[in-house]
Design brief:
The structure is a single chain. The chain has helices at 3-26, 33-55, 65-76, 80-88, 91-123. It contains 5 helices and no strands. With 125 residues, the protein is an all-alpha fold. Helix 1 packs parallel to helix 3 and helix 4 (80-88) packs antiparallel against helix 5. It has one domain (3-123).
């Protein structure tokens, strides 16, 4: 990986992390706000990453693409938070949350990919 790709990944990672923290802060006042924020971030992140990968980001230079995919979406989404919830809460809540996260993530990928393919078709002559 070249230097500018590493900088793009680091910058994208910082922005993704701050975005995730913002989601946690925005739901802090809600009951089960952490669960809601984590589910929303992972679902939207799956959708966004699938959209970007299906679309291909032709407008962006190749060195910037890892910053968006690996950096931003890699830090915005997290499986470790889901795993922590699954092992620290009751078994029923943990397994249920894990199942909901998996279903929502797969749905996000399918929707994001479909939207990305549609957007890619509209951009080509």
């Amino acid at each position: 990986m070249r230097f500018r790709e590493m900088v793009a990944v680091a910058f994208g990672g910082a922005v993704g992390t701050l975005t995730r923290v913002g989601a946690l802060e925005a739901t802090d006042h809600l009951p089960q706000g952490e669960l809601i924020a984590t589910l929303a971030a992972n679902t939207l992140g799956a959708l966004g990453l699938a959209f970007v990968l299906a679309r291909g980001l032709p407008e962006f230079p190749s060195w910037l693409r890892p910053g968006i995919t690996v950096g931003f979406f890699g830090s915005y989404t997290t499986f470790s938070a889901v795993a922590l919830i699954a092992v620290t809460d009751t078994m029923a809540l943990g397994l249920g949350y894990l199942a909901i996260t998996l279903v929502a993530g797969v749905a996000g990928v399918l929707i994001g990919r479909a939207l990305g393919v549609l957007a890619g078709k509209g951009a080509r002559p």
